[in-house]
Amino acid sequence: MIDFPNFSENSHSLLSKFLTKSVFEELKNKKTTKNNSLQQVIASGVAHQDSHIGVYAGDKESYTIFSSLFDPIIKEYHGFSKHQKHNSNTDITQFSGSNPDVENKYIISTRIRVARNIANYPLGTIISNEERKEVEKRIVSALCELKNELSGSYYPLYNMPQKTQAQLIEDHFLFKEGDRFLSSAGLNNDWPNGRGIFHNKEKTFLVWVNEEDQLRIISMQKGGNIKEVFARLIKAVKEIEKVITFSKSDRLGYITSCPTNLGTAMRASVHIFLPKLSADMKKLKSITNHHHLQIRGVNGEHSESKNSVFDISNQRRLGVTEIEAINDLYKGITALIKAEKEKI
Length: 344
Ligand code: ADP
Ligand code: ILO
Prior knowledge:
It is a single chain. By secondary structure, this protein is α+β, with helices and mostly antiparallel strands. It has 2 domains: 14-78, Transferase Creatine Kinase, Chain A, domain 1; 92-342, Creatine Kinase, Chain A, domain 2 (2-Layer Sandwich). It has helices at 14-18, 21-27, 38-47, 62-65, 67-78, 129-143, 162-170, 180-185, 226-241, 281-290, 322-342, and strands at residues 107-116, 152-156, 196-200, 205-209, 215-222, 248-249, 253-254, 266-273, 293-296, 309-314. It has an 8-stranded antiparallel β-sheet with strand order 2-3-4-5-1-8-10-9. Strands 6-7 form a two-stranded antiparallel ribbon. The protein binds adenosine-5'-diphosphate (ADP) and N5-iminoethyl-L-ornithine (ILO). The site of N5-iminoethyl-L-ornithine (ILO) has 12 residues, from loops.
């Protein structure tokens, strides 16, 4: 039995906004078939009152059993109502853009990732040590089948030298350790068991295993060729999907631990150098808001931007197709570069 949490006045999380007393009463004794509870769903947001969202699902069913809490959060973040249905479109011939920075002056690198989880397993917040290892085994065996540009090796975290791990993180290839939001959600349980990274020789194709989601499939390279990065990603996802069935819902698309990632589960980002616009954040934000883009720091979420370099990515992942999401990025980045050039 849990008590209604105390949210401080300074808490602006979507959890604190939508967990009303009546929603709490409706959900407090509910459990999913895999035994996920409201307490587990809200643990991170209660522990960290500075959360933006504050909730994590423990399984696919969490999104229906606890829908009175998840649906308004999803609506506010993605603008996706409970009557809508998500559609996918990865047909690259329908993407008319390519590289918004052909002169190679502003975009340092482009990265597109999708999150995936395996059908019928619990998500990372409530998965057992044994199940997580089983998930790792299935993923690694699927990845070892990949050919040509996508072929690579798997490096488990448990025996990775500290120096290698630090270098991979610094080079933006590997997830950080000890994220406090993930820890409180249970997503760092049994660390580092079952965690690791697969990558090709060039590190243009990478897969994170058992971080916030069971797979984060990543395509990245220097420069701004969004089309090339997207094409590699889609090819990889299709190959992996031949062997592994991903958790998916008719309404919500791909199922992810955090509701911000539902749907396409895709974040397409560029690291971009905007020295003049960085002195006019109001203008920068008005352009990114107009194109549904989010600004992050150069070391990922909850980090600061450094030396006028920003991580800019699609904010919407649900209720838009993959093609619409990369179009948002393409158009927004084109507008930002134009504004940067025009600034005196
Ligand atoms: P995610 O993208 O999986 O939601 P993060 O925001 O934490 O997670 O980013 C993960 C890592 O990817 C960080 O090291 C971040 O700097 C790096 N990254 C994100 N976008 C780019 C990019 N366009 N180029 C290079 N590295 C990037
Ligand atoms: N739980 C954190 C992060 C939310 C969105 N980001 C990710 C990585 N899922 C919060 O609520 O601020």
